[in-house]
Amino acid sequence: MVISLLCSPRITLMIKLTIILLILSSPISAYATTNHPHHPFKSVYAFGDSYTDTGNTRSNTGPSGFMFVSNLPYGATFFHHPTNRYSDGRLVIDFVAQVLSLPFLPPYLDPKADKSSGVNFAVAGSTAIVHSFFVKNNMTINITPQSLQTQLSWFNKFLEGKGCKDSYATPRECEAVFHDALIWVGEIGANDYAYSFGSSVPTKTIQKLAINSVTAFLQCVGIAEKGRKVCGRSRPTTNRVPNVVHVSRSSYRRQRQRRVCRSANKQSDTHNTILKAKLNLFRKQFPQSVIVYADYYNAYLTVIKNAKKYGFKELYKVCCGYGGGTYNFNYFNACGSPSATSCANPSQYINWDGVHLTEAMYKAMADAFVNGTYSQPPFRSLLSKKHSSG
Ligand SMILES: *[C@@H]1O[C@H](CO)[C@@H](O)[C@H](O)[C@H]1NC(C)=O
Ligand SMILES: *[C@@H]1O[C@H](CO)[C@@H](O)[C@H](O)[C@H]1NC(C)=O
């Protein structure tokens, strides 16, 4: 996510969007056939952006503002070497894997990885809206070409490799992939807002298209479970995007910059509210599935408000950066570059590199989702239901 860079001096302007968890078959009946009470799920398939990416991106392929993810001090806290995660250590998805007693999810693009317990399709810089939309509207600065569409096509390839092909004749192979699987749709869409920032495309348009993309994505995955191929192979879901009328850029940009900076929180709030309503429709459409909504936005606000309790001393200053001052952040000397340095105690910081969070913050967020009240329905109740039915 790059949005913060554009809103100086407050560099930690973050769009905080929803995390969605999907359990496609009924968790209770599914559990009855599982032998391991400590493995409520056999596998996890994750999608999202840099907040979820466990290594599909490297220094030379990631967003240009954060080009050093393959260097230390990325990874220094937990792994003690860079793993191409945008943090000093584990991400929310890593803590979730640990809660489920599963190995850390390997990145899809690692051909040698053991993918028997799941795959991570998330890519840093990824958008919800299909890439061609940004190209068409001249929003190609600092942008990775992968979108949720790309991740879906990777999932398709993965399914094909497992024999879950485009045919009703192979439900067994599909069942093998989806049975007792958790689909984790990490935060996605923040980059869409960031990339469109300063362009002539209205925020409302981005909102609509981003939410449509996520909804279409969920629908595709929901349908895939029924033995059909994940849709969206040939036709991008947001194929018919309007070419937005170009208005005078410079004045528009200034105006938008003020507005966007001020209303980032409101924007995430609205986005999440709309998405939540869509999820309710989706629950009706797929009554066999359990859909958990993880409230990233309010979890984040709660941690910030109770920072001391979590051991945080720096709410906004960047741990790994350059230049000191209030934020210790300099775009041209980003974390991992030769001139940037890491703070001594990352666990006292919320912000790792200017946009991404420290392991300590990701743990606090994971705790809010897993143990706290920020998942609806509560994640724990889901797990205990699976346990008791076993
Ligand atoms: C994009 O840029 C090209 C070349 O500068 C211009 O012709 C075109 O009108 C622009 N399109 C939009 C949607 O702004
Ligand atoms: C949830 O709570 C348990 C028990 O207090 C703790 O061991 C675990 O680390 C917590 N999970 C997360 C993700 O923080």
UniProtKB/TrEMBL annotation:
Signal sequence bounds: 1-32
Claim: Signal is one of the keywords in the record: yes
Keywords of this entry: Glycoprotein, Hydrolase, Signal
Domain of life: Eukaryota
Pfam families in the record: Lipase_GDSL
PANTHER family in the record: LIPASE_HYDROLASE FAMILY PROTEIN, PUTATIVE, EXPRESSED-RELATED, ZINC FINGER FYVE DOMAIN CONTAINING PROTEIN
Membership in a protein family: Belongs to the 'GDSL' lipolytic enzyme family.
Name listed for the protein in its UniProt record: GDSL esterase/lipase
